[in-house]
Amino acid sequence: MVLHLSTFHLEGGAGVAATRLHRALLRSGSDSGMLVPAVQHEENGVYGLANTKWQARKAWMRFVAERAFFLPYEKDKSVRFAFSPAAIGADIRMHPLVQQADIIHLHWINFGFLSLHSLEKLFSLGKPIVWTLHDMWTFTGGCHYSKGCENFLSHCRYCPFLARPEAYDLSFAQFERKRSMYGNARMALVSPSQWLDDIVKSAALTKNIHAQSIPNCIDTGLFTSLDKSEIRARLNLPLDKKLVLFAGANTQDPRKGFSYFKDAVAKLNRNSTEIEVLVLGKSRPENFTGFPANVHYLGKISDQQELVNAYNAADIIAVPSLEDNLPNTIMEAMACGTPVAGFSTGGIPEMIDHKVNGYVSEAGSSDSLAEGMQWIMDNNTGYSLSRLAREKVIRSYAENVIARRYQELYQSLLAQ
Question: Name one Pfam family in it (predicted).
Fold first, then answer.
């Protein structure tokens, strides 16, 4: 059995990606299980570490304790959830599912689920470890995205996320702990994007560990093209406007580039009111005050079919992320036939074929983002870009394609 370990079940990009892979493996005939702190909805093969109110309270206390541990170290509130010290976590080494597993597959495991000590205990079992990297934390001294810092290429120290960067600060200590832990591990690292895989192969902690790139997967039967007019009528959205979607778990996370999106829409609507905006994700109404277009706030959507409807309602999705791995939003939108204008950062240029099925804009340029959005509006005649976008997803990210690549990796590890 392959056992997936993830902090989240159906929340956040990493949790969604992990769950989708688990489902894909089950549908492909693999024996797959998933262990998470808490199950959001009952699902085949997904198990919660917390099955009682007391266990759920303990899980919450671990999260609080983890953040409290970091509080004296943090530079300011902006980095509060951008750095994980992994000081607090559950020891799951003796959990029945862990004991039964032939392969342990790690995903995003921070925020009090697994600590460095927890990982050391798991590694000590000697079982093959596959670790899918959903950000940079695995090879840094604690940050999830480095924001341009390249200390991880040699040794993390003088960390810009910390209140008192020093030669032997918290990032140095975590880096050393990881180096010791990785030394004897039977481990393969998987990056969803080639961008991240290239960094993994250069980072000091991971350059000598087997690494490869395997994208996340998506259910192309669920995420598919629907009748746009019918969906808009159902959602009470205008039929005569170009609707541009912005989506993110937290729209106000600076990393997601909402300010660039706002500026780009202003440029496009300077002499027109043709464009209106859909916003999907956690936000507040006051964030749209003075926005240069009419905003339809869809809120945070958990239901998958409602998510499919939101993508189908849009003509374009804009993804001006300043740092990202392989965004689920791009994959989901393209599967629904919604072309993407996105910044040339992280794995985004791998997903969008420039001026073929979308537009890759210059990173950090609202002018270039506006140009990309306009290009898509001008060139998606007969939904030609939409068809090519969906074809790219079926070819590269469909469940059977990705499940087969992971199955080959698992077999190679078990044969060693």
Answer: Glyco_transf_4
Alpha helices in 201-286 (DSSP H): 228-234, 258-268
Residues paired with 103 in a beta bridge: 2
Taking residue 183's Cβ as centre, other Cβ atoms within 10 Å add up to: 10
What region does 92 belong to: left with phi over 0, alpha with psi -120 to 50, or beta? alpha
Q: Is 290 exposed, middle or buried (0-12, 13-18, 19+ CB in 10 A)?
A: exposed
Please state the domain extents for the chain. Answer: 2-217+399-415, 228-397
The CATH number corresponding to 228-397 among 3.30.160.100, 3.90.180.10, 3.30.1360.70, 3.40.50.2000 equals 3.40.50.2000
Distance from C-alpha of 252 to C-alpha of 259, rounded to nearest angstrom: 9
Check if the beta carbon of residue 166 is closer than 8 Å to that of residue 157. Answer: yes
∠ CA 55-60-62, rounded to 5°: 95
The answer to whether the beta carbons of residues 50 and 58 sit under 8 Å apart is yes
- What would the DSSP string read from start to end of 118-143? HHHHHHTT---EEEE-SSSGGGSSSB
Reply yes or no on domain 2-217+399-415 having CATH 3.30.300. Answer: no
The verdict on pTM exceeding 0.70 is yes
List the pLDDT tens digit at each of the 416 positions of the chain: 999 999 999 888 899 999 999 999 999 999 999 999 999 889 999 999 988 888 888 989 999 999 999 999 999 998 999 999 999 999 999 999 999 999 999 999 999 999 999 999 999 999 999 999 999 999 999 999 999 999 999 999 999 999 999 999 999 999 999 999 999 889 999 999 999 999 999 999 999 999 999 999 999 999 999 999 999 999 999 999 999 999 976 667 788 898 999 999 999 988 777 899 999 988 777 778 888 999 999 988 888 999 999 999 999 999 999 988 999 999 999 999 999 999 999 999 999 999 999 999 999 999 999 999 999 999 999 999 999 999 999 999 999 999 999 999 999 999 98
